Structures are given as C-alpha cells and as structure tokens.
C-alpha cells in the first residue's frame, strides 16, 4: 500500500482560505505515478488534529471527515461524502492522533487524489467544529489496488437523531431507532454486513430497583407511609456523591431524619435530629440493589432487603465500599432488523455485533472502533429502512439519560 499525507496549512499561496477543519491540497497527477496502476481504492489511515476549542463550548463531539475523494454514501435519509467518524473527546485538549486500525476502503481515482478536499464537521449539526487557533491538521490516506469483487462494498452511516426519520418514527430513541433510507435497497446476490464503528452516549441509566422503606413510631409520616416503598427515580450517576445527593433528597421529601455521606471511602448513614434510643423498631430498609450500591451488603440475587437499625445508635457505617455500577451494562447487544437470526442465550436474535462496554465516567460519548470485521449474513433481499436496537445481555434495551445521539457505520460486502 502507498500513502499520501495531506496538510491543512500547505500551499497557502494556492489555497489562502484553508482552515484546520476545511482545506484543499493539490498534487501534480504526474507525481502520483508511484501509486498502483489500474483501479484503486483508498482509506483514511490516520488523522492528526489540534483539539483546542473554545472552552465555553467544550464538550465531547462526534466529528466526521467529508471529502471529494470518495463516492457518495447513504447517510440516514440522504447522501453524503462521509468517509470516517471521530470522537473528539473534551478531555483531549491538545493534539490528537487517531489511527484507524481497520480503515474503511472506498474506490477512488488519481484525478481525485491530486485535487483532494477535506472537511471536518460536527456529525450532528453539519457545522464546523469550534476549533480555536492551533496546529495544522494532517490526514494520511492509504491507497491500494482493488481486489476483484463481484460488487463494490459500500457503507451506510446512521444517526439516531435523524430529523427526517423522526417524522416517520416519532418514538425513536438513542438506543432504539429506525432510519428511513433515501431509496429502497435491492440485493440480488449474497451479501454480508459488518458494524464498522459505533458511538453511543455514556450516561446509562443503571440504578433501577432502588427504594427505601421506613418504620418508626415517631416518624412524621408514619400513619401514611409506614412500610411503603419510597422509590428513588432511576437516573444516571457517574459518582456516588451524585447518587447520595438524590438519595438524601428522597429522605428529605418524606421527612425521614436520616442523611447519607461519604467518610473514608464508605457510606455513613446518620440520624441527624432528635435521635433517642428506642427499644423497638427504628429501621430504614434498603432494597437489595440500593444496599449493594451503598455498600451495606453484596447483592446475591436473593431479593432480601437490608435493615439499617437506628434504635440503638444514631450512626451506621457500611461494611463495604460503595459500588455504583452493579447493573452497568458490561456488554452491549447491537441488533439490526435486516440481518439473519443468530442464537444468543437460546433465543433467536438479529445480532449485528456483541460489544464489550468499559466503564468511563468522564466521557460523554463511548467509541467502539473494531480491529476486525465480524460479518453476518444479510437476512432480507430488499428494504427501505433499517432498525437498530441496543440491549444488554438480558435482552432489555439499555437506556441513556442523554440527548447525545447514537451513530454508527455499517459496511455491506458482496460474497
């Protein structure tokens, strides 16, 4: 394979309006004789860019590389010349080097490579990223001779926030959505499909089944709420301090004079007002999940509540460290309605790919760029829409407390 490196600050005399996010480069076509002869294909192998941005707008941002060196590809309900997607994390404020270990190849021509245009855009808004002044952008393109194929591979880019699809499918969410394509896809031969990349919001709702019950004769709401399940609404929390804040608010709402805090890495529950020793019950019951999160007991699947008793003491310290991520989905099942069935856990599932999900409390967007293509058979011969569903291993849809859309790239290959 051969390489061409394009640079945003090169040839400023020819292209005075080049910027770090949108630039042209010219190469004399005679200087490309070192490239393979005949039909060729290319891919973005790497991009180096300065991620300095206006800090008032600093956020995780899904960027896309658009270029004239590739053919049009389907992007939701329209066509675009998108090549690759990049997660520009807010935590990376200096020069970022993205190396695509399994790049997507597309057919091209020397004439296009000699007059290349590149544009980096916000994939959601189509606008330029809010780059401040910084180092130039470099894009490495690799070129090789096309291997014989019955049909050219092609890619489809999908985004759960597609406004046109939202008109047809108003119940679309960022973990279950249907995209209306710009044309009906018709396949007459055997094709396979692979998930090339996946970008999903990280703010998973992972705190279902949390509630308290309280029993104490001197409680203001004893006659109304004694032994009732007082639920803590499921939300996303990235720190135990954040969860404790919501936990304390629930206790305050029901006038339970108990407060939770962190002391030396463990949760301490204390009765903070008018406590007195009482020979009978003054007990806060924690649901099994809540008891595990706070560190009072390890979840064993038995469904047993944990009793925190305050009749003999005003303070109780959890014996274990808190664990906020008991139900955080460690694996994600990416399902797609156009692929063949796969047996997963004894059930028929239209599985596109099983993805291992690492916990990252700092990121807003989780990125998955796969080292190898895992192909599954295309299960239908024609379709006008594609439905994506992201579930955990139980089969339930994962839920995200975020307005960040899910974006992915699917590659189609003829076999």
Concise description?
The chain is mostly beta strands and 415 residues long.
Structure overview:
- This protein is mainly beta.
- Among the domains are: 2-148, Sandwich (Jelly Rolls), CATH 2.60.120; 211-317, no CATH class.
- The protein contains five helices and 29 strands.
- Strands 5, 6, 12, 14, 26, 27 and 29 form a seven-stranded mixed sheet that branches.
- A hairpin with a 2-residue loop joins strand 23 and strand 24 (347-349).
- The longest helix has 14 residues, at 240-253.
- It starts with a strand and ends with a strand.
Chart the SSEs and their pairings.
Elements lengths: L1 E6 L14 E5 L13 E11 L10 E7 L5 E3 L2 E3 L1 E7 L6 E5 L6 E3 L1 H5 E8 L15 E8 L8 E6 L3 H6 L7 E11 L4 E11 L9 E6 L5 H4 L4 E2 L8 H14 L4 E6 L2 E6 L10 E5 L1 H7 L11 E4 L5 E3 L13 E6 L5 E3 L2 E3 L1 E6 L8 E5 L6 E2 L4 E10 L15 E8 L1
Helix content: under 10%
Q: Main sheet, how many strands, which sense, barrel?
A: 7 strands, mixed
Residues in β-strands, percent: 35-45%
CATH fold annotation of the domain at 2-148 = Jelly Rolls
- Approximate shape: elongated
CATH class of the domain at 2-148: Mainly Beta
Mean pLDDT: 90
N-end to C-end Cα span: 23 Å
Quaternary class: single chain
Class by helix and strand content? mainly beta
CATH architecture grouping of the domain at 2-148: Sandwich
Number of helices: 5
Radius of gyration: 27 Å
Low-pLDDT regions: none
Number of strand elements: 29
């Amino acid at each position: 394979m051969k390489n061409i490196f394009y640079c945003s600050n090169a040839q400023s005399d020819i292209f005075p309006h080049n910027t770090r996010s949108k630039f042209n480069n010219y190469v004399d076509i005679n200087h490309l004789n070192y490239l393979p002869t005949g039909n060729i294909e290319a891919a973005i192998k790497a991009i180096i860019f300065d991620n300095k941005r206006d800090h008032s707008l600093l956020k995780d941002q899904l960027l896309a590389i658009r270029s004239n060196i590739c053919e049009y590809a389907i992007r939701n309900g329209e066509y675009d010349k998108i090549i690759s997607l990049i997660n520009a994390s807010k935590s990376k404020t200096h020069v970022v080097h993205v190396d695509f270990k399994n790049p997507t190849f597309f057919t091209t021509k020397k004439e296009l490579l000699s007059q290349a245009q590149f544009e980096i855009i916000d994939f959601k808004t189509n606008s330029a990223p809010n780059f401040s002044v910084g180092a130039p952008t470099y894009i490495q393109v690799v070129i090789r001779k096309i291997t014989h194929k019955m049909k050219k591979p092609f890619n489809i880019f999908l985004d759960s926030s597609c406004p046109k699809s939202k008109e047809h499918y108003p119940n679309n969410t960022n973990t279950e959505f249907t995209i209306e394509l710009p044309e009906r896809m018709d396949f007459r031969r055997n094709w396979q499909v692979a998930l090339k990349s996946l970008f999903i919001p990280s703010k998973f709702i992972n705190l279902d089944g949390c509630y308290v019950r309280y029993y104490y004769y001197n409680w203001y709401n004893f006659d109304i709420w004694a032994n009732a399940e007082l639920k803590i609404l499921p939300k996303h929390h990235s720190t135990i301090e954040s969860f404790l804040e919501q936990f304390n608010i629930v206790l305050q709402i029901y006038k339970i004079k108990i407060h939770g805090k962190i002391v030396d890495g463990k949760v301490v529950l204390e009765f903070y007002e008018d406590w007195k020793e009482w020979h009978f019950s003054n007990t806060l019951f924690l649901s099994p999940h809540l008891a595990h999160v706070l560190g009072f007991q390890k979840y064993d699947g038995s469904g047993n509540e944990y009793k925190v008793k305050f009749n003999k003491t005003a303070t109780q310290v959890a014996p274990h460290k808190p664990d906020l991520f008991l139900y955080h989905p460690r694996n994600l099942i990416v399902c797609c309605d156009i692929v063949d069935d796969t047996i997963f856990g004894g059930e028929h599932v239209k599985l596109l790919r099983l993805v291992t999900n690492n916990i990252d409390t700092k990121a807003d967007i989780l990125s998955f760029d796969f080292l190898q293509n895992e192909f599954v058979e295309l299960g239908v011969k024609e379709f006008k829409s594609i439905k994506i569903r992201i579930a955990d291993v139980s089969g339930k849809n994962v839920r995200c407390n975020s307005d960040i859309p899910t974006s992915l790239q699917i590659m189609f290959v003829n076999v």
